[in-house]
From TrEMBL, chain A:
The keyword Transferase does not apply. It is an enzyme of class 1 (oxidoreductase). It holds the Pfam family Ald_Xan_dh_C. The keyword DNA repair does not apply. InterPro entries: Ald_Oxase/Xan_DH_a/b (IPR000674), Ald_Oxase/Xan_DH_a/b_sf (IPR036856), Ald_Oxase/xanthine_DH-like (IPR016208), AldOxase/xan_DH_MoCoBD1 (IPR008274), AldOxase/xan_DH_MoCoBD2 (IPR046867), AldOxase/xan_DH_Mopterin-bd_sf (IPR037165), Xanthine_dehydrogenase_dsu (IPR017609). It comes from the Bacteria. This is Xanthine dehydrogenase subunit D. Keywords: Oxidoreductase. Residues 37-144 form the Aldehyde oxidase/xanthine dehydrogenase a/b hammerhead domain. It comes from Streptomyces physcomitrii. GO terms for molecular function: xanthine dehydrogenase activity. SUPFAM superfamilies: CO dehydrogenase molybdoprotein N-domain-like (SSF54665), Molybdenum cofactor-binding domain (SSF56003). The lineage of its organism: Bacteria, Bacillati, Actinomycetota, Actinomycetes, Kitasatosporales. Its EC number is 1.17.1.4.
TrEMBL record, chain B:
PANTHER family: OXIDOREDUCTASE WITH IRON-SULFUR SUBUNIT (PTHR44379), XANTHINE DEHYDROGENASE IRON-SULFUR-BINDING SUBUNIT XDHC-RELATED (PTHR44379:SF8). InterPro entries: 2Fe-2S-bd, 2Fe-2S-bd_dom_sf, 2Fe-2S_ferredoxin-like_sf, 2Fe-2S_ferredoxin-type, 2Fe2S_fd_BS, Beta-grasp_dom_sf, Diverse_Oxidoreductases. Residues 1-78 form the 2Fe-2S ferredoxin-type domain. Coiled coil: none annotated. This is (2Fe-2S)-binding protein. It comes from the Bacteria. It holds the Pfam family Fer2. Keywords: 2Fe-2S, Iron, Iron-sulfur, Metal-binding, Oxidoreductase.
Automatic annotation (TrEMBL), chain C:
PANTHER family: XANTHINE DEHYDROGENASE SUBUNIT C-RELATED (PTHR42659). The keyword Cytoplasm does not apply. It comes from the Bacteria. Keywords: FAD, Flavoprotein, Oxidoreductase. PROSITE patterns: FAD_PCMH. Gene3D superfamilies: 3.30.465.10, CO dehydrogenase flavoprotein, C-terminal domain, Uridine Diphospho-n-acetylenolpyruvylglucosamine Reductase, domain 2. The lineage of its organism: Bacteria, Bacillati, Actinomycetota, Actinomycetes, Kitasatosporales. This is Xanthine dehydrogenase family protein subunit M. It comes from Streptomyces physcomitrii. SUPFAM superfamilies: CO dehydrogenase flavoprotein C-terminal domain-like, FAD-binding/transporter-associated domain-like. Residues 1-169 form the FAD-binding PCMH-type domain.
Amino acid sequence: MATRATKTTDTTWLRPTGTPGGIGESAPRPDGTLKVTGEFAYSSDMWHEDMLWGRLLRAPLAHAEIVSLDTTEALALSGVHAVLTYEDLPAPVRHYGLEIQDTPVLARDRVRHHGEPVALVAADHPEIARRAAALIRVEYRELPVVTDESSATAPGAPVLHPDREDPHAPHVPHPNILHRQPVLRGDAEAAAARADVIVRGDYEFGMQDQAFLGPESGLAVPDEDGGVDLYVATQWLHSDLRQIAPVLGLPEERVRMTLAGVGGAFGGREDLSMQIHACLLALRTGRPVKMVYDRFESFFGHVHRHPARLHYEHGATRDGRLTHVRCRIVLDGGAYASTSAAVVGNAASLALGPYAVEDVALEALALYTNNPPCGAMRGFGAVQACFAYEAQMDKVAAELGLDPVEFRRINAMEQGTVMPTGQRVDSPAPVAELLRRVKARPLPPAEPWRSEGADGPDIRLLPGGLSNTTHGEGVVRGVGYAVGIKNVGFSEGFDDYSTARVRLEVLGGEPVATVHTAMAEVGQGGVTVHTQIARTELGVQRVALRPADTAIGSAGSTSASRQTYVTGGAVREACVQVRAEVLARGRRRFGDRHPAWSGPGLGLDGGKVVTAEGEVLAAVADILGEEAVEQEVEWRHRPTRPFDRHSGQGDGHVQYSFAAHRAVVDVDTELGLVRVVELACAQDVGKAMNPQAVVGQIQGGTVQGLGMALMEEILVDPATAQVRNPSFTDYLIPTILDTPELPVDVLELADPHAPYGLRGAGEAPTLSATPAVLAAVRAATGLALTRTPVRPEHLTGSG
Amino acid sequence: MRVNLVVNGRRQEADDVWEGESLLFLLRERLGLPGAKNACEQGECGSCTVRLDGVPVCACLVAAGQAEGREVLTVEGLAARHAGTPGAPTGAEEAARWRARPADSAAPLAPVQQAFLDAGAVQCGFCTPGLLVAADELLEREPSPSDADIREALSGNLCRCTGYEKIMDAVRLAAARQSEAG
Amino acid sequence: MEFLRPTSWSEALAAKAAHPEAVPLAGGTDVMVQLNFDHLRPAHLLDLGRVAELGTHERDGAQVRIGASVPYTTLIEELREELPALALAAHTVASPQIRNRGSVGGNLGTASPAGDAHPALLAAGAEVEAESVRGRRRIPIDDFYTGVKRNALAPDELIRAVRVDRATGPQQFAKVGTRNAMVIAVCAFSLALHPDRRSVRTGIGSAAPTPVRAGAAEDFLTAVLDEHRCWETGRPPPPSAAARFAQLCAEACRPIDDVRGTADYRRHAVAVLARRTLHWTWTSYGERARSTEGAA
């Protein structure tokens, strides 16, 4: 396997052209120069003459009846142009949602979570809008809150959505359970009887925030015919459009959406935020309306990663083979559905981790509670499970007296392994190799804070950093490992496709390709990959990208590690069709001049049609003349199937992605402070389309996992369900001083079913980073640490 | 109130500024310079870093009125500053049309800007302007910073995409290039 | 809202006298957050940015007089020798950008129990120079903090400067946060040895409604150091005494549970920091004592 690792890809349908800037190269970002000069227009940078500022009034309570709502004073304020409530909604459709339309555009008579939208203001200046929002009189009658499984399913518990009509409603054991997915394979009961050791554990995973830096924002510009143009940062334009238009009472073609610059996403822009609200205000006032959340509001403006409680039971024989796994994963979906059902599907189908176990009995479920709504975040249901099963793997290994990496190797899945869902994995799954690679790395030197000749320690290299808490006292090193499995693309039978239009024309004597998709570039570098694919497939240097908008069909979401695969696949297919058309035209025009025209293996390179041997047959410019070639395609990956409602069986996923981490930490065991010294990753990406960009994805995902291990958590008061830390002062994400060296080992084992053999890469590193850091901290402290993020009080017994 | 200041070498004037406005709002919404970013508006992310009379500060925590008569450098002015082409004072109208680096200009990027591109330090890019201003100031002060120096100097600039490794690469690269050129 | 821009100290005092509710604005690192998030809408903002003398510092006998607007960066770069605890504390403040704007004067004006400068001021010994049109007075730091985010200033007073005793012995400052940079204190501790007076002083932050000194711990340690002739010999106090000192420091805390940490953890961490900073300062004192001995 190791020898295959450096080979690239199945090239049967790739005619490598050697065009500079093509796939496999670290081509520069097409938007890079604009981003470093400050000219790139993010959604919060939008500006329009005569524009108004929109603002939302949100509920201060997590569960309450709205007794009365009076906007008189707000409307009377000078500079206020509109104040809208539920009563002002223009269409019968007054709810939205990604899978289940249960989220009110504005609250009618009840709010179900802290920060729920209640009323809207448009004004001349943000300050006037703030003052007006403060003048809206809302009288609430507080209702009891449900905040966890026991309170949500207790007898007499308030039911969050009593009139559910969603597809899961008839099948759940309680109306406050949004969806439940069991996975049953083999006979776990019988297998447990064969186990020499059985290890059980209860784990808790806190609520993580995407904490993208660019706040929710955008600009809605009304047109003269009652339609609207919306410039917004999102992950999926067409999904937004499908939810926005009905609420505005407009056909989709009268709501034109264009992607504005996106300042990060990580799942948090999959649901709507200010889209409908800005459009409502623009249509009401007839003026362009800009809305920008501040950071406080942003914490209420998007869904978070589901907090979870997980119970696991692993059995193993003395020789280190897992006999069975039983587990139960309870995810808190909060007040509205968002993507919780799909998160449950992921949690259930990936609950076991990247291990081969035949006897499995597990279930995952999501609750409706009065906590903040939770939905998509990088790793999507696979993250919580990975934290727990990797803790379990260490625990079982310790019980058996085995090295934790060796124990994982013994049980590692591989190509051909059958998942607990019954799906046979039909492409490389180099789990053991990834672990071997991170383990084989030399360990970083001990006590990095000591340096020759220096007066004292470099505190920046100690736990506590600049805060000067230790000069080495109490510091213990720990090393930990983890590996994870994530699905790529949309699963469970979802029709996951993307649309791409590619045009090839001659401009100034040179062939130029133009690529148009609705793909949301959120920073991941999809736009770079599109230029690379066009160069490779069409042999051109110049590639132009049209702005992503709804003038073209859907590209699907920038999520699930799917865009390079799916929209990349669509762009490639469109290019292939364009190339075929160019060759057909060339044959018609010049076919009689050279026998090679009628043979196979022709390609485009350097603006020429060339034979497999490199002989030039014609210039593309001469073939096309004034006539452009344009092709639009909808491209799909292999279909998936839903999981059986009772057994969880089904070929639910299209591709799996794997990453492993080794964490090296220094822990101040007396103060419970941690410095991660190194966090090394090995990941199989199938094909590194852009090696620099894919390493950047892996490093970024890794550090989000590090944050989840040590500091990131939205704290919700269990008594009131109110968010306690909605700010960057108290929701901490890693700084550059918290972040260690991040060596990355990229494997390229082609998936024969995927374009170029690539494997979706964005999410897997977020899974294993967290449990690796926790394992290292456990190694340093000897503590069980069943909760993440781990806080200093957990490490010092002073919680 | 009225505020006069010099931004990227150009005299600017804004009227009807609300007294509670920040320098960040003034730059972004009144002067057409949205390069400094509005990620947290509480001094906890550094994405709005600009230089105020040469000193790196969070523009979100400077009241617009405090910038009266001061000189501000934003990311939009970085390339020109390194090219040694300070802008001439202009009227507000001309300033509004002014672009940091017009599309037809061959003006080179500042070393840190080019290094961020070359090292792959830009993903979503929202933190980039603040990091560039902070990193440029670091290299001006300390041409050969150690890794720990770089981390300390940039510890007020959050990035959520990159994991910082390629930002480290970029600053090292810019330092190396500047020392070669110097 | 009105934006007052005095260009001299006397103008600033006059403005504050005319508008006692005016909110002074210097580095903006506290006030602007309050403005940006709609937590504060004063009738008047009093910009002190044009009052040049607030930005200077000078030696004045046994004290350093630091203008109220002198940024933390200056303390780190220029006053590390004379005010080691304050310089260390300044280095833990937020981020470089904030340290370029924020000041001890601002920390005192806000008087948050989590302000990083307070423990160092308490340990070093300091006076706050307050002034109004009625005149100037010096408020001992021990009397300055009167409650959660409350201080001893009269409504018409502004902080002109803080006078900090120049160090006569080793000083330390340490702060616990859950991130290795840019973090608000979960708790903080400062210790200053005053060999000239053969005493020690402490300061604790974020572990009580106001910054506090651990008086009983100071008295205990001062007595132990005398009893064991530690000042003369440079030898450290016995480990049991260090442990008792740490315990007394923890007992001086009146912490709460909040999003940043638990009360129990704060007490625990203050004890650890007290023990460590005692070790660091005394090691440093011992080395100095021995080298002085060696030189003699």
